[in-house]
TrEMBL record:
Name of this chain's protein: Carbohydrate binding family 9 domain-containing protein
Annotated Gene3D superfamilies: 2.60.40.1190
SUPFAM superfamilies attached to this UniProt entry: CBD9-like (SSF49344)
Any Pfam family: DUF5916
Entry-linked InterPro entries: DUF5916
Amino acid sequence: MHAQETAEPFPGLLVKKSAGPIVLDGQLEEAAWERAEVASEFVQNFPFDTSAAELPTEVRVTFTDEALYIAAKIYQPKEDYIVTSLRRDFEFGPSDVFAVNIDPFRDKINGFHFAVSPLNVQREGLIDNGNNISTDWDNKWYSAVGNHPEYWVVEMAIPFKTLRYKRQDADNRWRMNFTRISVRQNEQSSWGAVPRQFGVNNLAFAREVLWASPPPRPGLNVSLIPYAIGGINEDAEFNLPSETTWNAGGDAKVALTPSLNLDLTFNPDFSQVEVDRQLTNLSRFELFFPERRQFFLENEDLFGKFGFPSSRPFFSRRIGIARGTLRKIDNDGQEIEVDRTLNVPIQAGARISGKLDNNWRVGLLNMQTGPVQAADIAPANYAVGVLQRKVFDRSYVGGIFTNKINFRPDGNGGYEVDPAAANRAAGIEYNLFSKDNKWEAEAFYHRSFGQNEQADAQAAALFIGHYLRRWRIFAPTHYVGANHNPEIGFVPRTGFLSTSPGITHLIFPQKEWWARRVIAFGLEARTEFLFSKPDDFQLADRNLSGGAFVQLPGQSQVSLNYSNSYTFLFNPFDPTNTGGEELPANKGYHYQTWSLSFDSDVRKDFYYSAGVEHGTFFNADFTRVEIDANFRWQPVGVIALSAAYTDIALPSPYSSAKIWLVGPRAELSFSRSVFFSAFLQYNTQADNVNINTRLQWRFRPVSDLFLVYTDNYFSDQFWQQPKGKNRAIVLKATYWLNL
């Protein structure tokens, strides 16, 4: 039975097929829009979630054989628009936006996000874990906006080839939610009501839409994305001559089924990817930087979200980097060897990922890297397999297996498998998300395997979180064995057992005078007790912290925090991480800090955040000052400056340090297809100054021309007589071709 034969009205939204083509012009003149049902009566998510939206929104949905069409009439005075820039994939928060979130499989966990600003700037992303949105995903879709004095109209066309879904012969239902953010009015609202303790784009609260007739059966869906690149590289640090390079490669996307995708890559290049935002590292462990490379991003949650952030069995950024030894001439004219992490070429790769049906997801990944002979780095092969099963309403059970094969020189100029260097890991975990999203839990067990298997090469954890309107309570417990070593994972610390319960309480003003000026008051307490295991469990780290904050209109906030910590050093450690004299091992240190921070009103053209922290750090006097200032040159872009100054004053004979991390940046849009960004990072801790500029011309949908220049200097000589490390300029063209 088709939906149109249903006698009773559908409580969600009925999607009817258009009898004719839709012209994207922001006018809504087609007959299909007159026939379409209207989704209105939006409900506030912020600042309150118990009232109707003050600004009305009307949404209509229809479709043709080629695309899903969504139109919205969004009431907002034209003079109130706030748009950060014309750049695609604009950031969340300081821009007005209308968005649609689509959950074709109704699992309330995974979906698609498409958003448009009043100036027709697009943003698209993938949703995982019900709420996380990755805007690094790119795909083809189209939009048009019509602006009027009191409202704006948006039309969106999303090709069915861009989506992943299953088609039934009858009763096709998806889940959708329509959301909007009006920055100047300080309002977030949605069609499906979302409680204020959750983000407005949370899929748990999407509503059902019913297709009056089934969506089309997707036909052949193959996309080729070739690239060509040319550039000049120069490495003065290691006395390498300038080198002119030319290269080519590309990706392919093949829909094996409407919901299962095969991605192929040959000789990929990621030179256009924005450089990482550097951080001052005062810890004893490796810092985490997110994946930004396009090939790894679709269904990235399926591979990369196993475990905790401090213990992942798979971390895609391990692919394409390796530690090697380079030789250079020092200041005394002597040849020395330097051990460092280097980029290595990825020769080819393949990935299958997606849905088998409404309950099963699968992921298979295999990547082959090549050698870097100048650094004595041999090839390696990376393989990952994942299987995930939905249980109950929004929960799932998953299993993962990783396998890294290392190669070695064979003595004849080639390479062979090194059987003594294989590394594998396997794991299983359960993730719980309650139907109302108030309960979240995770439990996992992982184990790594080497050629010479060792005991205690395992990790396990349990997390329980409870999120109410006024209370947020969470309690993670985590164990990582001393010999746990998944080489293609992220495990910065081993040999510990930790527990870190915390609680936050929100107080909402009731009186009207306060409610207009203060969104909420908050009190929070956090703890961490970490026991290390060199021989037996011993308290190694303890942190007790508490604070208060006030949320104000315009996403403004004031926070005051206190932290009391204890660390026992099992190994010598330099708290500055600058190569100075190390504190002795087998000794405990107590220290404490106070911090105050303020985030200003993002509705203003100039907005900023600032913070100061003062106290002690190990046996040092400690002060840190941070600021991030932004000027919105609407709608051209944002000019910003981030700066952090850290002063660690250690007693003699240890070395004190004054660490600067300064990063001015500009992100400018000359049109909706031409973008320019420039980013400088001055980092005295890493003794590096990085300059990265990128000019991008999107000459067709998802087809770009990039001109990228990057330069690195030693920071200790930068202001007197700059000494360069390396530099490169590349010109890269990519083209998206649908077959």
